[in-house]
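Teaching note: in complex prediction, the entire set of molecules is handled at once rather than each chain in isolation. The prompt given to students was simply: 'Predict the structure of this complex.' The entities are:
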Amino acid sequence: MDPRVLRRVPAARAQFALLGALAVATAGLIVAGATALATVLAAAAEGRLDRGALAWFVAAVAGRALTAWAQGAVAVRAAATVKAALRGELLGAVGQRGPGWLSGQRAGELATLAGRGLDALDDYITGYLPQMLLGAAVPVAVLARLAFADWGSALIVAATLPLIPVFAILVGWQTEAATRRQWRRLALLGGHFLDMVAGLPTLRAFGRARAQAAAVRRLAGEHRLATMRTLRIAFLSALVLELVATLSVALVAVPIGLRLLDGGLTLGTALLVLLLAPEAYLPLRAAGAKFHASMAGLTALDETFTILDAAPAGTDQRAGGPVGAWREIRFENVTVEYDRGAALRDATLTIRRGDRVALVGPSGAGKSTILAVLLGFVAPASGRVLVDGVDLRDLDIDAWRAGLAWVPQRPHLFAATLADNIRLGAPEATDEAVREAASLAVLPVPVETVVGERGHGLSSGQRQRVALARAFLRDPALLLLDEPTARLDPASEAAVLAATQRLAHGRTVLMVAHRPAMLPLADRTITVQDGQVTERATEAAA
Amino acid sequence: MRVLLAMTRPYRWRLAGAGLLAAGTDLAGLALMATATWLLISAAGRPPLQALTVAIVAVRALAVGRGTLRYVERLAGHDAVLRLLTDVRTRVYESLAAMAVPVRHTGDALSRLVSDVDAVQDLMLRVLVPAGAAATVATLAVTGAALASPAAAAALSAGLLLAGLALPAAALALTHRAAARVAPLRGALATDAVDLTAGAADLAAYGATGTALRAAAGRAAELARVERRLGYAGSALDAAGVLLGGATAAAVVVVALRSGASGVTVGVLAVLSLAAVEATLALMTAARLYPGSRAALTRLAPLLAPPAPVAGGSTDVPEADVVARDLAVRYPGSDRPALAGVDLTLAPGRRVAVVGPSGAGKSTLIAALAGLVAPTSGSVTRGGHPMHEYAEQVRPRIVGGLMAEAYVFHATLRENLLGDGDVDGALAAAGLLDWVRTLPDGLDTPAGADGAQLSGGQRQRLALARALLLGPRVLVLDEPTEGLDPDAADRVLAGTLTAAGPGRAVVLVTHRLRGLEGFDEILVLDGGVVIQRGTHVRLSATPGWYREHL
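The expected output is the structure of the full assembly:
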């Protein structure tokens, strides 16, 4: 077992230990069952029924059924424990490090891992791992029993048993080398079908869609030939392992048969050797067969630990000071650095309560970063943000955010009712309050409507109005708007603009404005260019 | 399922052969243990050595034979199924290519389609072939046992029926239940994961991260609970299999002894029973895998039906204008038209630019002009024929070119041009020729998976060269200079217009309003309707969207 799993998920330790104990018990029961059955068959050869031995045999089989059940059950428990714990850590990492830590790619990776990726661990924990434990325990028990019964046979088994891992590794190398030689070709041929289907719109646009069917067939045929060439080598490993196991049975059975002829061995012992010998090889071969399926789980495990280890320690966990009704927010020489470079350089600006400030400038200039700093998503690399003279870092971030509402460019909607989506920042809000917020935001859809994942089923304009309704319900002192009318058609833009105007009334507003239609809402205009801010005196707002 | 079975027809003998080889492998294993047991018990009676030679040779032969059979069987099975898969891939591709309404496959749907096709392989190799082999082995084992002791054969067949029918049926039911219980929970959890990552900022801003985390943890715990319960039941079936093997062997011993079978027979039958039950349990594994591949196959079935023969369509390409009259397009499931009331005449040599905010209907307009989308009302005609009634392979040479989302294939640059003719001329106009000449392999350089070896600008130029090489009567250019720096964009646009020549109409869709001075007409689209039209000179003198965005 990966020691990192044991370290990260202490709850699973006892379950893995139990799996080990069950493997030992299974090994004992296999030996006991074979011993009893050999006795029964030796007696039967003389025409009598050894009831005592038969009872022992049935009892051993029943015991083995019980351990088989327990092993499966414990393995499933362990898998569920590990998956739940790692899921919790992955998702908790987001909660703790905040959205600033999540870049686009990392967010996608994390969502896949925490969603379905970790389920790949099932094959590893419930399939491969128990077999490996049996592979360790059973051969030892079988060899011990054989040594006790018949030295010669024990030696044959002991000599051939190591051939299984040795050949598995040798043939594995061969296969890998062969596959690597062919890899590019196999990947190209295997991916061709996907490539053609993905490119179908383009092929259609060029009138080539039907003509390419012949190419699909030809390359699929070539893929078959290339795959078969690799499989011929890959299956050799199974062939060798199978031969080692079956030939050992022949190697054991024929000499003991001859010794029986001489009378040098009792039939009971001979049958015991015959029944036990194959059991020694079985678990290792079964583990080998399950190894391939467990690889996806190990990969998921690696990715999980890579993400968790790369996650910086949480920064949002400080207990901060209380947040009052502030009068002024000051950015003092604030610089913000992202991985891709500085987004804000030495920015200084002041926002007084009641100001309605428009941030303008080309895209990528740092406008949204100013909002992210105020939201506490990113911390300044240098400089500070003061709220009535107190550093934002020293405030209780939850209490500070409770006084904000944020309408982003692309609000995230959850697969739930619109009412639940609007309630995001005010879970206690009554139905009437939600409805009122929706109507203030001119949401044209009933709040009982259920939307799909990522708000599927709503247009951009409708999503934007849900975000506005969220803000209405939040009733914030400071309103942060990030181009709420970007990507909207004219009709939606007018509706969203009117709602925004109502929302902005009587509040402090900081808005990123791209479209000229937003500007009349502002009484100050600040230009952001290449991360630097300059305020220009606004002509009296219309 | 029936469609797939029809497709297996050419490979029926190969698949049956693989099944027989699989059965042979299991039988060789059974025979090996049975013969070895016979050898030992007989030897204990101290017969002359000659009486045992056949058995000794048989044991050695079966030992070698079993492994060899397994190897041959796996190769034969994979070969047969990969042949079938070639047909399945081709058929699926043909069906997709023949669809009247093109389905745009997003990443998820695409990878599911590919894994659904691969599920055919699982269904054959891990369900049907092993199930057939197990049934054969069970039948032969009972037959063999009946020859030695009919009473014991009855006990054995009872055990095999339980192992081969009852347990697989239970496993099937359990897998169905698991799919019904677990799949929605896993889906919900995947949604949680997306919400907590993609929606992290919204949650944090509204102080709802904690609540969402707790809800997700609750669902994860519920999933763990369900998985545990199902796991207990699944392991109980495995345990029942173990118990069944032992109990069958014990019953066979008792029954055979009672019926007065010889000592050798009893021993052989007991060992045979153990091995036969074990081989039959393969049916349980097959039953567990069946629902998954079945579901994949059900999704795939519509694409496996033999595609309808190609509707003829007009293939002659007379010289005539392409004319749109009161053109409107409304996509299914949308409450407003994507395009309405558009009139446009494209005579040879005419230069038309289409501008407007994103989502205004620009791409829909060119799709309708190209006959890729049928008008909901109004018409696009050429020489009196509706565009979408032209044969599919002819249409692009009437109206075609660089459409939205040009795909770069995992092939060489030459193959990616999708045509031949004045390749150098097209590459030069797109500004790609100088770069191609610096490549050691020239046009035979691979573009990489999804064009990964190319920069964004090179991709765009490649797509443009492809459009020029196609040489349609009406050349459509959807954002041809996307991703190029302003100077390069101006150069490439000018080069392309020159290369298009005076005999060809050009429709340029762009969000850049630079370089439109030479165009005969500029259409400003917004919300699916033409809100302004005219030359650059006129529009830049008129208040409105165009002047605002200059």
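Point out the following to students. Chain B has a mean pLDDT of 88. The two ends of chain B are 60 Å apart (CA to CA).
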